[in-house]
Amino acid sequence: MPGKELRNGIDISNSIRKFLFPALTGNYLTRLILLGLSCFLFFSYILIPMRIQGHSMEPTYRNGSYAFCVRPQYLFTPIKRFDVVTVRFTGRSVMLLKRVLALPGDTLEFREGTLYINEERIDEPYLQHHSSWNLPVREVKQGYVYVVGDNRSTSMSEHHFGQVKIERIIGGVLF
Amino acid sequence: MNIKRILIFLLLAAATLYFLLPSDEKEIRNNLASLAEYCSSSGKEAPIAALKNVMLAGKLCSYPCRVQVESFNIDQDFNKKEFTDHVLMLKKMTMNTRFSFHDTVINFPMDGKAELVSTLRLDGKTEDNRFTDAYELNIHAEKTNGNWFFSSFTVIEFMEQ
After folding, report:
1. Pair A38, A75 in one domain
2. ipTM score here?
3. Which of B21, B128, B133, B150 is 20 to 30 Å apart from A81, CA to CA?
4. What span, in angstroms and rounded, lies between the C-alpha atoms of A50 and A44?
5. What backbone torsions phi and psi does residue A48 show, to the nearest 5 degrees?
């Protein structure tokens, strides 16, 4: 019996060793390359990791935090008001994180920091600081959405916001 | 087995050639990286070094060089002196700021002409804070005497307030 236990002990340690340090066979290398390729494609085209730099979406997303951009989010569902989206520049290395406030055909206005969409006063529970922004009424063009950051403590001139083409929206945000 | 080895060797040789041989696209990308480096500034940059970098940035452009930034009401052809003066002013205004270009796409609409679209990213540091900003740029380049020079810079303002 002690011999069997020893044999079993040897079998277990062998299995662990094989699992952690497998022989570099052709099949193993193929599996490794396929796994690496799948991870690369998944994290490049489906769930893009992002490091948030800047304060424009605080307090929802803080400077230095991490999130994922979900690319397929708007493949089958339309963009909704108050969704947080990623807006691209030339590519996907640098993107803006913004909240959609108005959809195509909507009118948008800021009066002393209060948002009005289609002449209706809108409460924004995600805001931490009340602003004194004033923006005259404007209509969002077809094929565009109006995006603004959550941090309105800065002046309007220091904030990137406005209507952007829907085709510039890469996806939604996870976490 | 020999055929496999020959194929691997050919693939490696092709990859090496691709990375080592010069091309118009590589030269333009290198010029863009150099421009970003010359425009970047750190607090430790000596005035002479800053002047030298500004002159080097000026050598990457052809003149007159057109600069268009709608939000700052800039739409002007600059000669070399005006261009370098503005780069120097930019460096002074953006102390401790690193410029870098990302996601650059280069097209060659005709021989000796190139159109670039790129994202300019600014990473800066003020006394008590860090900031990041980005702009989309449309850049034109021309080939003169075998070298590529930037001939225009336009900031694309894709967000309409």
Report:
1. no
2. 0.81
3. B133
4. 11
5. -90, 120
Identify the pLDDT of residue A6: 52
- Contact of A134 with A111, CB cutoff 8 Å: yes
The fold adopted by the segment(s) B23-156 is Nuclear Transport Factor 2; Chain: A, (3.10.450)
The gap from C-alpha A106 to its chain's centroid, in whole angstroms, comes to 24
Spell out the domain ranges in chain B. 23-156
Residue with tokens 């989309």: B136
Those residues of chain A whose CB sits closer than 8 Å to some CB in chain B are: 53-54, 63, 89-94, 96, 135, 138, 144, 147, 156, 160-165, 168
Contact B103 A96 (CB under 8 A): no
The pair of three-digit structure tokens given for residue B6, joined into one six-digit string: 């020959």
List, as one string, the DSSP characters of A4-37: HHHHHHHHHHHHHHHHHS----HHHHHHHHHHHH
Residues of A in contact with B118 (CB under 8 A): 90
Predicted confidence (pLDDT) per residue in B121-140, tens digit: 999 887 777 888 899 999 99
What residue type is assigned to position B125 of the chain?
K
Asked if A42 and A58 sit in the same domain, the reply is no
- Distance CA(A17)–CA(A40), nearest Å, equals 27
CA pair distance B67, B153, nearest whole angstrom: 5
Q: Which domain holds residue A21?
A: 1-46
Regarding whether A81 and A41 lie in a shared domain, the answer is no
- Count CB-CB contacts under 10 A for residue B139: 21
Which among B150, B3, B158, B157 has a CA at the least distance from the CA of B66? B150
Residues A27 and A65 in one domain: no
Residues B64-85: tens digit of each pLDDT? 999 999 888 889 999 999 999 9
Residue in B with minimal Cα distance to A51: B132
Rounded-to-integer distance, Cα B101 and Cα B32, Å: 7
Catalytic pick from A4, A98, A132, A153?
Answer: A98
Task: Output the average pLDDT for chain B.
Answer: 90
State the smallest CA–CA distance between residue B135 and chain A in angstroms.
7
Question: How far apart (Å, rounded) are the C-alpha atoms in residues A71 and B151?
Answer: 36
Residues A66 and A137 in one domain: yes
